[in-house]
Amino acid sequence: MERIVTKPLKVDFHIHSVYSKYKDEYALVKENSIENIDTLVAKLNEFSINMCSITDHDFFSYELYSKLKTYENKGTLLKVFPGVEFSIGIKSDDKLKQIHVIAIFDDTDERKVKKIEEILTEQIDGPKINYENDGNDFFTEEKLITILNRINLNTVLIAHQKNSAYSVDPRSRDLSSLGKVRMNEFLTSEVFEALEFKSMKSGLFNNLFALEKNKDYEIVRFITGSDCHEWKAYPNHDSVNIDSDDFSHTYLKCLPTFKGVCMALSDFSRIKLHESLFSKDSKKLENVKLKINSEEITIPLSKGINAIIGDNSIGKSLLMHKMSNFAFIDDTKIKTGYTKYLSDNNIEIMTYFNMDNLYKFDKQGDIRERFQKNDVSENQDFLDSKYPPSPDAEVYKTIVYNLIDNVCEKIENKFSIDTEYKKLKTLVLVDKDVKNKNISTTKLSFNQTKMNGYTKVTNYLKNIQSKIDDPTKFIQSGLQSEDSDHLVKIKDTIVKLVEKYTSLEKEEKLIYTIKTAFNNGVDTFNSDIKNYKDELENLSATYEQDISDSAVIISNLIKLKKNISSKLVDHIEPKEVEVSKLCYGDYKFIRRFKNLATIDDLYLKTLIKRPLKEKVIICLDTITETELDNYLKENKDISSLKPLEKFRKALKMCVDSDLEIVSTILNKEQDDTSTLSSGLNSRNYFDIISNDQEEGIYIIDQPEDDVSQKAIKDCLLADFKKMADNRQIILITHNPQFVVNLDVDNVICMTKKDDKIEVKYGALEFEDEDEKTNIIEIVADNLDGGVESIKKRWKRYGKEINS
């Protein structure tokens, strides 16, 4: 007997035999007799049916059931269940409406199964069934309850819903024919474990209906049934009504037991219309082998979700860490302690992970701790492939640097005016005519404005030139050839402009150099002949030079005054800053700048205040170099610079900080500039993992430590089920939600009894009386709250109808 589910089981719980003659046309079912059972078995094997039930209208043949059961495990057929298709009259809008309900019974009590025929035979009256219902051809609800109470077996009830649940013209005998109100009453009270349909066209809409209903609480499951009335035409209804092209069998993920069917029909994710109930990922571990007190134990692993439970400090985490050669533990003391524990308990681990097959290993509390650091980079190895390339900071740096230079130029202009004013000298008049007996000359006038202007333009153009790489390099990256040609022309134009303004700058520098050299010569000459002049001649020469210098200074002041501005910050046309984003599932993976979303007046004004002491404001009309130096916050890295350069450098350092790349993950509906409290929280982490298609084994130790109980119920269970579609999962847990509500595929329980470690394992539905193993009971006994979770998860499981 298999202990875990290794493959999906193909089922059909709606097949009719000759005993439907009491309600259906006899000619339709007359060939479906016990003498022709081989016909049905051949068809079941042809279509690889694993579990089935003959469900005749309001009747059960124990002889036919027993005969079909003899074919179990001889072909593809693994399990045959006793079953009946009941006709029930349900009151709706003060009218009785007939619906059909399939009842599948527990087959473990042979005596009670045999009694089903005895109870239903009592209703046979000649060639018809006596429904004792005023001539109606269905049982009342009260009569059905009486019959089920007398049968006294655990039962799965499946209601008909052959037409779409959305259909405005519901088919008779469908559950939806009762109307929305009554239908919802039945669904929310969970009278029926599933609804059955046949047409795949209806199935599409029925599944949409189920998805909608299951958003808040999983209450609707759909399965298919052939409703075959002529065995040789299986899986068609009969030889005339050929509908196999519009029919698909249902696959259940469960063991071939009644308990397994109960559990499968209580979980939407265990029911599929195809065989892909497990991941196709080849990176999985088939089993775990270990020795305990020299006894070798092999624990098979499911391709889906394996949950390790058991006593505290029994070695559950140790097992995973040892199997990975302690690759995820840095603390030597912990490694030593684990090794000692294995030795003391005479445990030898014989199975090790192929590390290339691991998707991730999240240690206990690892995820929560990681995100409490408020640093997404801690998850960069996992998240990198989901982020877009970072936006280019250099483009925006150039823009803001130019704005800073403009501000500093205004301040520099004010300082230049102050400097020029200081150059003005007091003129000493000579009250006598003086004839210069010696040769004398005055210096040439000049200023650096033009030269400095060309230098700024040249630097600006060179900065652009440095940013333009060879465009042809990017053709392979997607740059179209015609656009590459345009960029080549732009690059050539910038090169020519750089050459032009470099030449103009050189000319001005040459003129400046010549004039400076000439004036230096004049200064030397005047100094040399000073001793040869009398006092009046020297005074006259000084006066003439001062007059000449003052004229230049006044000329410079006039030019500087023209450029002066009362505003430190001019109006800036707002420019939105690029945000790089990629959508992944319900999330946006964003890379943006830390503190720069829009370049505008407000940003620049705020930026200017940052290097300044509190409550300090720069007034352009009055600011002096000394004041600016006093206004600046202390910064040892730039303390040796002059005040204005300190200010400029401090501003650019702030910009560099603002342009650092920040990685964040947002919900789709959030604004791109929003932030999550920790960049990425544990809840979102699991959601993203569930959408990730990367292969490999995922190991997680006690995920309940990383999220709230509510988040487990509302989100994580669905995330883990989705994850299991892509990879094998091994989780260690003490939380019953992660076992019972998650409906794990394999439970591995490690306990210690009389100083001996015991290991038991199997699917949730697995039980074996001989070895006294019942996984559900083990879960109830070993997990706090396990009993309550089981009661909530499977309301009907394990109780008699009349209990």
How far apart lie the N and C ends?
30 Å
CATH superfamily of the largest domain: Metal-dependent hydrolases
What's the shape?
elongated
Structural class: alpha/beta
When the domains are counted, the total is 4
Give a short account of the largest sheet.
10 strands, mixed
Task: Give me the number of helical elements.
Answer: 23
Q: Nearest-angstrom radius of gyration?
A: 44 Å
Q: What's the pLDDT, averaged over the residues?
A: 83
Secondary-structure blueprint of this entry?
Elements: E1 9-15, H1 26-29, H2 37-46, E2 51-57, H3 62-69, E3 79-92, E4 95-105, H4 110-121, E5 124-125, E6 128-129, E7 139-140, H5 141-151, E8 155-160, H6 180-188, E9 194-197, H7 200-213, E10 222-224, E11 250-252, H8 258-264, E12 271-272, E13 287-292, E14 295-300, E15 305-310, H9 316-323, H10 332-344, E16 347-349, E17 358-362, H11 366-372, H12 380-383, H13 393-423, H14 449-467, H15 481-529, H16 535-563, E18 575-576, E19 580-584, E20 587-593, E21 598-599, H17 601-609, H18 625-631, H19 643-658, E22 661-667, H20 682-691, E23 697-701, H21 709-723, E24 729-732, E25 746-753, E26 756-762, E27 767-768, E28 773-774, H22 775-782, H23 786-793
Tags for this model:
single chain; 803 residues; alpha/beta; TIM Barrel; Rossmann fold; 4 domains; ten-stranded mixed β-sheet; six-stranded mixed β-sheet; elongated
